[in-house]
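Curious: explain these tokens?
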Amino acid sequence: MKEINIFYNALETLPVLASKIKAKQKKIMGYLCSYAPEELIYAAGFHPMRLFSSKSDIVQAEQHLQAYCCSLVRGVLEDSLSGRLDFLDGTVFPHTCDSMQRLSDIWRMNGKYEFFADVILPAKLNTQSARAYMKDVLTGFKKDLEKAAGKEITDTDLQNSIKKFNIIRKNLSKIYALQSKKPGIIKGSDLYTIVKGSMVMDRDEVADILPVIAGNLEKIDLPPKNIKRIVMSGSICDSPDIYSAMESAGGVIVGDDLCTGQRWFEGQTQVDENPMDAIAARLLNRVICPAKHFSPTARGENLVSLAKKNRADGVIFMLLKFCDPHAFDYPYLKEFLEKQGIKTLLIEMDDQQQNSGQLATRFETFIHYI
């Protein structure tokens, strides 16, 4: 499908993509967490871009971060120090894990980019005070963006931004639903590329292309296949090879609980209320990650619901090595799933070191087991 190739082409070389965005007179604001309030960044006239590690060797970052920080944090810092992110005009850090907070400190003290913002959202989301605090933090961030942009961000700007991101989220959800309804309707590597591309490409372009892809997929009549349905859980999954290995083993990803997947685009922002209240409400009510708290069992209940909704044969935990929040969550989530008769597999990954042969063997064994 030629529309999917647009995403592949955009991701081939990030600096080339960045130069095309800058040619449209847009400054680029990098971010490292799905809790970044992208609607505000976009409404200010900036381009929000999710940062991923280029997976280059870690050399300079070793002077700033311990070896037991996750490969995402170390890899992105390495890219910054080595000049591979010099196209950035600023960076936004919603505080999540300890490693990300320390990266924020190093980033700020390095002072390499024009704009920097810590967006310290509440960790506990189920109280009235959390809602008030969330609104205050977003209001402060809005003022920082207005100062950087040299203009006021109006309600009309925000409403237009909300509508744009709602289109993106709606169509990504639709594509995922089609994959769950007719597993294999789209290759996992293509789905991965579309989601990652949607996080870094010009959002106007993404909002135009995604409905076309969703519409084309709807027209495909796919005969039933004897394959195992898998839900993936974790923080990020930044490798198309994982999806290819899964499919070669006889499985297909029909849903995920990833911050580079459904957790990022899940839920619409209301357009019929105060835009700042609406943005805050979505961040408060969306599916949480281990860095946030809604109830002691919220994460487990969501994962079980996701598995049952997608009729999953099993859940695979794809955890970044040294990712403490997800590692602490894993035993409780595994127990929660297995009490419901849902089989699980744990895979620890490192952006810089991936053993594709071992990964394929473990996938094959698990799929045979379930």
In short: The longest helix spans residues 155-181.
